[in-house]
Amino acid sequence: MGSSYGKIFSISTFGESHGKAIGVVIEGCPAGVPFDETFIQQELSRRKPGQSKITTNRQEADEFEVLSGVFDGKTTGTPIALLIRNQDQRSKDYSHIADRYRPSHADYTYQQKYGLRDYRGGGRSSARETAARVAAGAVAKLFLKEYGITVQAYVSQAGALKLNKNYQELDLSLAETNIVRCPDQNMAEKMIELIDSVRKDRDTIGGVVSAVIKGTPAGLGEPVFDRLHAELGKAMLSINACKGFEYGSGFDGVSLRGSEHNDVFYTEDGKVKTQTNFSGGIQGGISNGEDIYFRAAFKPVATLMKDQESINEAGEKVTVSGKGRHDPCVVPRAVPIVEAMAALVLADFLLRNRCSQK
Amino acid sequence: MGSSYGKIFSISTFGESHGKAIGVVIEGCPAGVPFDETFIQQELSRRKPGQSKITTNRQEADEFEVLSGVFDGKTTGTPIALLIRNQDQRSKDYSHIADRYRPSHADYTYQQKYGLRDYRGGGRSSARETAARVAAGAVAKLFLKEYGITVQAYVSQAGALKLNKNYQELDLSLAETNIVRCPDQNMAEKMIELIDSVRKDRDTIGGVVSAVIKGTPAGLGEPVFDRLHAELGKAMLSINACKGFEYGSGFDGVSLRGSEHNDVFYTEDGKVKTQTNFSGGIQGGISNGEDIYFRAAFKPVATLMKDQESINEAGEKVTVSGKGRHDPCVVPRAVPIVEAMAALVLADFLLRNRCSQK
Amino acid sequence: MGSSYGKIFSISTFGESHGKAIGVVIEGCPAGVPFDETFIQQELSRRKPGQSKITTNRQEADEFEVLSGVFDGKTTGTPIALLIRNQDQRSKDYSHIADRYRPSHADYTYQQKYGLRDYRGGGRSSARETAARVAAGAVAKLFLKEYGITVQAYVSQAGALKLNKNYQELDLSLAETNIVRCPDQNMAEKMIELIDSVRKDRDTIGGVVSAVIKGTPAGLGEPVFDRLHAELGKAMLSINACKGFEYGSGFDGVSLRGSEHNDVFYTEDGKVKTQTNFSGGIQGGISNGEDIYFRAAFKPVATLMKDQESINEAGEKVTVSGKGRHDPCVVPRAVPIVEAMAALVLADFLLRNRCSQK
Amino acid sequence: MGSSYGKIFSISTFGESHGKAIGVVIEGCPAGVPFDETFIQQELSRRKPGQSKITTNRQEADEFEVLSGVFDGKTTGTPIALLIRNQDQRSKDYSHIADRYRPSHADYTYQQKYGLRDYRGGGRSSARETAARVAAGAVAKLFLKEYGITVQAYVSQAGALKLNKNYQELDLSLAETNIVRCPDQNMAEKMIELIDSVRKDRDTIGGVVSAVIKGTPAGLGEPVFDRLHAELGKAMLSINACKGFEYGSGFDGVSLRGSEHNDVFYTEDGKVKTQTNFSGGIQGGISNGEDIYFRAAFKPVATLMKDQESINEAGEKVTVSGKGRHDPCVVPRAVPIVEAMAALVLADFLLRNRCSQK
């Protein structure tokens, strides 16, 4: 349980870090969506390992194969299965942790939950699974494109280096021009330097990804549990290493007074708008047509390239050696994952909203 | 859609602020749980309006009636329906907003989504719906009690007044001894003063609720989308006015290095523990047996007791007058709601985990 | 689990035979549907006990109260809760079976499943629960009415008395003109006589309900598991005492050759039709626009008004005395239940189909 | 939507008749189940085409590949993805029907539903999809084996040739000893002769598959909608060409009186049993520990090897020529599919029942 997501536009992912393949079955994508394979591959390449000096050097081409659901270049309305074969597995890198629990990993909890585990590269708990999400998210983006909805994410914090500009002050198109995916070139350089230095220390560091969704019509989101931001929150928190989520004014908004925080409505060219957007484009859990924006916090990667103290399955004190290949900081590669999950949420709610009125 | 929550231990709430009643149907509560009606009523009383000078003065006894699912003092395994009649409705208080949108409320988004709306007190979008959650959460607590799992929340921030102590430094049993539900008496007094002063200004202010879950066994939570913290996040963000969620080290953790942030395992009396708990009791989305803790941010209430500028359904500029009865700050009453939602999540995952092993 | 039904237009029923009330929460009914309370009451009256000499003489007015989801005479898109109080409970009629299992009832299986049971009138297993379905089905019918879709059922067999005419040869409007709900007056009289005679024998007998759905557009039903007829089948088989379901040519169709059974397409006034309709209006699990028709078999009621041999909870041989009040044959009252369940299935698929195309 | 089935032990199938592959993702299979690949392959071989003179001569090895969810010969509790590549596709066999609707096929309904369709071999509507179900069902059987639950199906009717013995009078182990899968050798020969003769006529014929489930504990099934037989019914009716379902006494039971039909309880060696089993092992929707048995009716295959009249997409009268390769009668190959779907239902309810009691 728990490997499926979405109510109408829904996905079911499968695969382990060092198994034969990972993949995803997308159900509920409407028929007739132009299926742009080049775009899907581009999205996968944004996430793939080994793309720069500040990411893991595991080598995976992350090429995908379409197994079903597409005919004559369009979706058919039936399940779309996408398959990505694992290539650079080196499972023996992991034999040394077969009987021991890496600190702050899922080794111990999986063992407790299931009574056994695929210890190779973390098995199912590996962030490798997110490639399947990115592939599915790319399909969701193709669907959203038909409605003029776009999702863009970027790195707004790495370690203590925080970009103190809101998204309106930034040229988000610059995010993809540097390897850390921060749209402020000056800050990007500092972040790259920081992450590279952390990497050289054989250590890791956390970060924050911010995202903006534009073009959403009013009406997406369902009261009372399936609020748009609640699903966005769940979607982000389901990404490996994510520790927090906030949208609109977020945690900082709590210090404001209502009279400062309320977004006043006005009309422009017959369209209802708000003068401010502390609501983050969502009111009562439903989109109001303004930009939706949010932030997701990611902890420092648990795997370090140095020895750490831990215990084994017998409960004895052992040393866990830093092997395998890992990112010193997840946020550069988390950017396309955040976008993918947001796109999946939006696609689902766009369809759900078709049932709101008689 | 969207008024149901949970996969096995699941709830379905109904009712509007000024309709006849609100209520909840609980499905999937196992048979044989002692059904303590007094406890459920106490929980409802912790949330009910009019309980102190810093809450709304709407008067609702919030007495509930058990319609089904209980026999001879125990749950029967069949749906438990709980009903709470609305009493102090004063719907005419709302006729003045029938055709206009209150800023930062759900008036506009509901109208856009459904093409019509029950404008009385916000209808379904009102936080009155959360009484049904508290009733259901109380049943979840009764089930969790059988397993020694407890949930406790408290106010850790009101406006800019932030309690800079972590939960281990506090005596959480003190939270219920003051009307703001902050376990630090000194801070509690300041918070009460602040909220009261904001209320006198006919304004509102936000806050943060922190929560701690103790006694959870290892193994709760499902990879990869239904991680325990992802569902906790969704559950919190589904509460009215919630803008952010973080667990364990949260947003602050991003600045740490992995070598500082990793929680080292050790064994004590044959039990696996961690030396620190930046993980917040959850690793790989699954509980590890340590305390689970998280924070939820709440924005300032949108309804102000003063006039605000807005538009009506025709898009014309109008004034929205502050009427009705509202809380100057939601967090004191949000405490039992946060606990209820957390208890519902835990109850569901406790049952889901029964299916993990052969 | 198991007390909810439907994916988008979904219901959750609650209540026991001799508890305080039964009821239903309807989620996913679109906003804007005219809410005709008189019609809903009429539907409930078609199902209510005590309506004729061939039904149980339990007296229940089955008046319902709307608790939520309706405003200004229209549905609001939020959950619609309907409540029916139990009146004529006579729970003490059942104290004699508290510790024993009635043959072919759910007494034993509930006890095994839950470890305890509400033995009064069968508790949750009682067909009294179907009143909630009829109320919900009436709302579904109001929604379907907006699309010109109608559902009509009738009794086509009582005991061995089988109406050997297909629905096209009958004037279905006559079904409601007699107490057994058979549209052939001659056969109706025989059926009434049979059932009354069985009743006098303190025995019971089975029957078959047939149903026809008209006005369905092509496209309803989802491949591959949620075929329209598969959901109709589940819906019917979920009704108390239902033992079989067939649609279109059904069991008899197996003896035909493909060349006889295939329905040839033709066009009339630009509309695609079929010359025969062995398909029962469904091809590949999806409606084709022709009439949908099916049959549901109901076993003889298990409760007899005479003594039967059985065992008690200790496994000892005991006598179960025939008390309580029960129908000698369920099919007359099953007619509105069959219609209600069919309407719920259709309403759900009508909404699901809104998501088929881009 | 509609390509997933099951609540806890759930499957999601994908793939078209003439696409690259078909497959299934199994979610919710508990960890620790011995994964017998040989057995799974055997099950697939029982369903595969080209196995005898009375089945289609399409050649598919139906070899499967395990992509995930298995480690060291056991299930890991994470999604199990199974892939079957299509080999003998001959898609050009189908170009002649690209613009026309085969009678009683899903061509027209898919076109209406989705606005486009993969016409090659029926695309998603092809019974080729059921190979994925058989693979998943084999995994379910491996899980059920751990609990001593077995499922066996056999052909009890082909055309008008009906086996008038109930399952207790038959040696079910003989079913797999002949190509029609009927355990009565005499009847089997007649059936084979009939089907072969129908095949030579370039025509098709229907049939009935019966099934028996042994070893089920009391308590499986959920009131009130998810009754065990209601899910079995849906599962069977979701199989291509299935037109009817009945369990226990079924349609014939309606003519009996309650006093004949009731199953009297007795105790043997401390175990509760019933003297008769008209209930088919299910009372109130929940298993009582007796054998569960049911029958599923299958219509004659729609594709004939001769010309038929029909219409094209423009609504013009056309001839549809019999090409492709098809079964003259589906029931011999439906036997393992019926078993697979029944096993999936049982596996799901076995897990669901773990949550019935505190």
Q: What features would you describe in this structure?
A:
Four copies of one chain form a homotetramer. With 358 residues, chain A is an alpha+beta fold. Chain A has a single domain, classed as Chorismate synthase AroC (Chorismate synthase, AroC fold, 4-Layer Sandwich). Helix content of chain A is 24%, strand content 22%. The first copy, chain A, is built from seven helices and 18 strands. Chain A has helices at residues 37-47, 107-114, 130-145, 185-200, 228-237, 258-261, 331-352; strands spanning 4-5, 10-15, 21-27, 64-66, 70-71, 74-75, 80-85, 150-158, 161-162, 207-214, 242-247, 265-268, 271-274, 282-283, 286-287, 292-298, 308-311, 317-320. In chain A, the strands form six sheets. A five-stranded antiparallel beta sheet of chain A has the order 1-2-3-7-4, covered by helices on one side. A five-stranded antiparallel beta sheet of chain A has the order 9-8-10-16-11. In chain A, a hairpin with a 2-residue loop joins strand 5 and strand 6. The radius of gyration of chain A is 21 Å and the shape is globular. The two termini of chain A are 34 Å apart. In chain A, 68% of the residues are buried. The mean pLDDT of chain A is 95. Chains in contact: A-B, A-C, A-D, B-C, B-D, C-D. At the A-B interface, strand 1, helix 2, helix 5, strand 11 and helix 6 of A face strand 1, helix 2, helix 5, strand 11 and helix 6 of B.
